[in-house]
Design goal:
There is one protein chain. The chain is an alpha/beta fold and about 325 residues long. It is built from twelve helices and eight strands. Pfam families: adh_short. InterPro entries: NAD(P)-bd_dom_sf, SDR_fam. Belongs to the short-chain dehydrogenases/reductases (SDR) family.
Length: about 325
């Protein structure tokens, strides 16, 4: 109950920010003259929504932003809009389809050819599919996009941020089976989305453990952006409809509020050295017991590592 009141009232947590904070507000101290203008951030899924807002705000704070997108037209529109606000923004657009290992490998080659540092990696790309679809590599589409791309990007100095969701807590242990998720067995769109977001947290926790063991100067955390106002159409007639919309509007975040936690974890000095955590409303919080299960995280990591090794070996032959 206290958490709900804190959320609705926008009461700030230990970080000094809360549910009403925007991406610009949480990064205000990182202006163009600060050290942030020496950083390079790579953002997947930045052609719309929270990803586009994250790119806009980081660019405004002087961060070089590499936008990795499948829809180049939409991504170019985002870049054009950012440059209207921040003419000197350094923006790079690279094409990638995160459901295809071949596309990921091409993207990696193109990025490495730029010879840029990679300080911040934001795994923002994600989809929700109500129907069963498979990726080019025959993996269930939601799982391939939201998790397997994350698992490939390891060992780079800086901050890695996985975009998760509070609905990861909807997954029970009996429904979280690696092979069933890849195959789309007994597919349900909401469950598949929740499973992929649970996997994002487990990946962050296991990778954080391994990075710590190597004394690597890399942190990785998962964030819940909140439920964001996108695609909601308000009816103009009817007391019930207006009332329901009013209630929903108090629970949902704007896109700028939705991007706040990602931007906070990406740039805040308070997040330095913090790894393997789950953030919501710009503050650390608890995730589900399954998401905190170290053995489950290690098992998912091992299964994913074996799968990636097999696929990459096949691609090389």
């Amino acid at each position: 109950m206290k958490a709900t009141i804190r959320y609705l009232a926008g009461i700030a947590g230990p970080s000094g920010f809360g549910s009403n904070s925007t991406a610009e507000q949480v990064t205000l101290q990182h202006n163009i003259s600060s050290s942030s203008n020496n950083l390079t951030a790579l953002i997947t899924g930045a052609s719309s929504g929270i990803g586009a807002e994250t790119a806009r705000v980081l660019a405004k704070r002087g961060v070089r932003v590499v936008i990795a997108a499948r829809d180049l037209k939409k991504a170019k529109d985002v870049i054009q809009n950012i440059r209207k606000e921040t003419p000197n923004a350094e923006l790079i657009l690279l094409e990638i389809d995160l459901t295809s290992f071949a596309s990921i490998q091409r993207f990696c080659s193109e990025f490495l050819a730029l010879e840029l540092p990679l300080n911040i990696l934001i795994n923002n790309a994600g989809i929700f599919s109500p129907n069963l679809e498979f990726s080019e590599d025959k993996f269930e589409m939601t799982f391939a996009t939201n998790y397997l791309d994350t698992a490939k990007k390891t060992g780079i100095e800086g901050r890695i941020i996985n975009i998760s969701s509070v609905i990861h807590s909807w997954v029970n242990r009996g429904c979280f089976r690696f092979n069933d998720m890849l195959a789309g067995k007994n597919y349900n769109g909401t469950r598949a989305y929740a499973q992929s977001k649970l996997a994002s947290i487990l990946h962050a926790k296991e990778m954080a453990r391994q990075l710590k063991a190597r004394n690597a100067r890399v942190t990785i955390n998962a964030v819940h952006p909140g439920i964001v106002k996108t695609g909601i159409i308000r009816a103009h007639k009817g007391l019930i409809t207006d009332s329901l919309f009013f209630i929903a509007s108090k629970l949902l975040k704007s896109i700028s509020q939705g991007a706040a936690t990602t931007c906070y974890v990406a740039l805040s000095p308070k997040a330095e050295g913090v790894s393997g955590k789950y953030f919501t409303d710009c503050n650390e919080c608890n995730c589900s017991s399954l998401a905190s299960d170290e053995s489950e995280a290690r098992k998912l990591w091992n299964n994913t590592h074996a799968l990636l090794h097999k696929r990459l070996r096949q691609a090389a032959t």
